[in-house]
Design brief:
alpha/beta; 4-stranded parallel sheet
């Protein structure tokens, strides 16, 4: 069971609250006669990343519990591949699509296409720029999580020093939301100076490669803020090789197992746990409910779940994006 502070519990209570006139109304897709069965198409980003692997594993497990089979494909943030997988799902006449979209703007057409074909789409982890097409858009509260992480990182930095930022995929709204939340906190401390920002696309190897360049360009840097754990872990590898990790404070975001170990070992200041297991479970449950009743059961289409700060105090309790009480 995932531990959440009171504010997160309230957020989930709002999500689970049923709305008789909620935004997710009935459609052709609700003609399953109240019985489970059929296939859910799970379309994710990159299962080699532990975050998205947890997303896939959860979707498959929850769908199986509810009596559905699944297909799994990964678009790698390529909208063209995503379109191909959406087309295939339509051809296969799947019951529903669980989608981690390849871009907020770039995915609108793909979601619309599936919806027009009578297949309900449930977004998880990332959102699209348009409402009223997908039945649900379930995301982590990225601004809240990034704020918690930045506050902890500022303390570790002693409110001063030169730092760099590793930025996520620019087509993903989550990258900007986290970066903006980091900046909102850090801007309150004039002793902290961002000397450079580089895009590393959520990837560990790119994080390492970019960090190697940043170390050479800024030998006096003392901090790194990263949009996710994979980029942060790549930065840690580069800092270790350069013999500088002990002098640099690194912040991550996601809460994967490697990051939890890094936090416990003092190599990473903190990370923000994204409740991807909870979010994906909600998406599958809402898909099942929609197919049986014509409504998702959620009070609104866009739903945000609060993140949890992971520090040395609780890192040992984190396993596969679930924090034990």
């Amino acid at each position: 069971m995932i531990f959440r502070p009171a504010s997160a519990a309230l957020s989930l209570a709002l999500i689970f609250g049923l709305a008789a006139c909620g935004s997710s109304g009935g459609s052709k897709a609700a003609a399953s006669g109240g019985k489970a069965g059929g296939t859910f198409a799970v379309i994710t980003v990159d299962p080699s990343n532990p975050y998205w692997k947890a997303e896939v594993d959860t979707a498959q497990s929850e769908a199986k519990k509810l009596g559905y089979s699944t297909t799994v494909n990964a678009h790698g943030n390529d909208p063209d591949k995503q379109n191909q997988f959406i087309d295939a799902a339509i051809s296969q006449k799947v019951k529903a699509i669980i989608l981690d979209p390849a871009g907020a703007k770039e995915s609108v057409g793909a979601v619309q296409k599936a919806t027009n074909a009578g297949i309900p789409v449930f977004l998880v982890n990332a959102e699209i720029n348009t409402q009223g097409i997908a039945k649900s858009q379930i995301v982590s509260n990225n601004a809240q999580g990034a704020t918690l992480g930045a506050q902890e990182w500022v303390k570790a930095m002693g409110s001063k020093g030169n730092y760099v930022e590793l930025y996520g995929n620019p087509t993903d709204n989550n990258a900007k939301v986290r970066s903006d939340a980091y900046a909102a906190v850090i801007s309150q401390y004039p002793g902290l100076k961002e000397v450079q920002r580089e895009t590393a696309n959520w990837d560990r190897q790119q994080g390492k490669d970019k960090m190697e360049l940043l170390i050479r360009a800024h030998p006096d840097l003392t901090g790194v803020i990263a949009g996710n754990d994979e980029m942060a872990l790549g930065a840690i590898q580069a800092l270790k090789t350069a013999g500088k990790l002990s002098k640099v404070k690194v912040l991550g975001f996601d809460g994967n197992n490697d990051a939890a170990k890094a936090v416990a070992n003092g190599e990473m200041v903190a990370t923000a746990l994204q409740p991807i297991v909870t979010g994906t479970t909600l998406a599958v449950d809402q898909a099942d409910r929609f197919l049986k009743t014509g409504k998702s059961g959620a009070a609104q289409e866009k739903q945000a779940i609060n993140c949890v700060l992971i520090t040395k105090d609780n890192a040992a309790k984190l396993n596969n994006f679930v924090l034990a009480q």
